[in-house]
Specification:
7-stranded mixed beta sheet; 2 domains; Cytochrome Bc1 Complex, Chain A, domain 1; 15 helices; 5-stranded mixed beta sheet
Length: 412
């Protein structure tokens, strides 16, 4: 067992490869979950939507429980049981009072390793997911982000929608679900994380009790990076009051040495703070966009950078021109030392506030251990931010913001 004293995480590994990460908290509420290194990019083309489908259906019955008993096991004591799927992970987690740790871990082991996926329950859940897809179609802000990744990556796994299509969803059976799990799930690619007042050794013992005896699972899936993205422009007519647009390109993966520098650059350009360049120079100065922001999502072998804006149709062309001007500005000149210092402090503050959420901390610690085999202390991250230079950001800007690399998508 490794103990990280400077930032209180304790790490342990079970004999079947499942890793555990614990952080102590004084809160009466615990946050605990399992993160599995399987997402929508790991599906075959004919399986599009399967990872998300499994996330829904894992609550629909085990060898000893029906769906009703699963859903009431944690919610019945005031807790909340939930799950989500990304392009590279599936996570099942819960929030509950500290007294119910053993109850949750026993349930978690049951649904992850002993779900039976009855066809009758799967058919009912298909209706729910089809409604979710229809709801998604009504949200252009969410839809354009996924459609933009399809524009970049095409039929590569990173380009396909997480929810899948109605045709694919309707084709899924219990046998297909189990085959997907058998091919993709590995105990060595699972991390159970917790933030709780329970002592680490006691929690590790409970995890040993319910997870160490589970058979070791090996994955056969292998990820292939997408090919170089060819810049494209796609304009689509939609019956919306606003025009929605997205500009961007492929960026760095989360293991790139440039990831942190580009994260800071993205934060300066259009991050969540109101003082971002895009917000100040387009929203505040001209009033063209209610929402304008830049986003950077890092995957294991590449990433996606994009700028989103929702604007009145008569301002679309001017908004595009202003966005391109801002991107070009960062490729032409270094930001000043004073500006760099200001935004470094801002980023550090944002990280600290994010870590102040125990649920966010629980999820991010699991992802860090899954992807890097360690969990860095906040001070370690701060030290890395401090070492960044204006030259580092200029190199990233010239690499990613170059106009000849950018794709654009619009809903008009």
């Amino acid at each position: 067992m490794i103990r990280i004293e400077e930032f209180p995480y304790s790490i342990h590994k079970l004999s079947n490869g499942i890793r555990l990460v614990h952080r102590h908290s004084t809160s009466p509420v615990a946050h605990c979950g399992i993160t599995i290194d399987v997402g929508s990019r790991d599906e075959l083309h004919s399986e599009n939507g399967m990872a998300h489908f499994i996330e829904h259906c894992i609550f629909k019955g085990t060898e000893k429980r029906k769906a009703f008993h699963i859903l009431n096991r944690i919610d019945g004591v005031g807790g909340e049981l939930n799950a989500f799927t990304t392009k590279e992970e599936t996570c099942i987690y819960a929030t509950f009072l500290n007294a119910y740790h053993e109850r949750f871990l026993e349930l978690l082991a049951d649904i992850v390793f002993h779900s039976v996926f009855p066809d009758r329950e799967l058919d009912k859940e298909k209706v729910v997911i089809l409604d979710e897809i229809n709801s998604y179609e009504d949200s252009p802000y969410e839809l354009i982000a996924d459609e933009f990744e399809h524009l970049l990556f095409g039929n590569h796994g990173l380009g396909r929608l997480i929810l899948g299509t109605p045709e694919r969803i309707n084709s899924f059976t219990s046998a297909k679900v189990k085959e997907f799990i058998s091919r993709n799930y590995s105990t060595e690619s699972m991390v159970i994380s917790v933030v709780s007042s329970i002592e680490a050794d006691k929690w590790f013992s409970l995890c040993e009790k319910y997870f160490a005896g589970q058979a070791k699972m090996s994955s056969r899936h292998k990820r292939y990076p997408p090919r170089n993205c060819v810049p494209r422009v796609r304009v689509e007519e939609r019956d919306t009051f606003q025009s929605h647009l997205m500009i961007g390109t492929k960026a760095y993966g989360y293991k790139s040495e440039k990831k942190l520098a580009f994260s800071l650059l993205n934060n300066i350009l259009g991050g969540p703070a109101m003082n971002s360049y895009l917000n100040m120079h387009i929203r505040e100065k001209y009033g063209f966009a209610y929402t304008i922001e830049s986003m950077y999502t890092a995957y294991s072998d590449c990433g996606v950078f994009s700028v989103y804006a929702g604007t009145d149709k008569k301002y679309v062309e001017r908004t595009i021109r202003l966005i391109m001007d801002e991107l070009d500005r960062f490729t032409q000149e270094k930001i000043s030392d004073g500006t760099l210092l200001k935004y470094k402090k801002q980023m550090m503050g944002q990280l600290a506030i994010n870590m102040d959420s125990n649920q966010n901390d629980m999820l991010s610690a699991a992802k860090a251990l899954l992807n890097f085999g360690k969990v860095d202390s906040l001070q370690t991250v701060y030290d890395s931010i401090e070492r960044l230079t204006a030259e580092d950001l200029l190199i990233c800007a010239r690499d990613i913001f170059a106009s000849e690399k950018l794709s654009r998508m619009q809903y008009v």
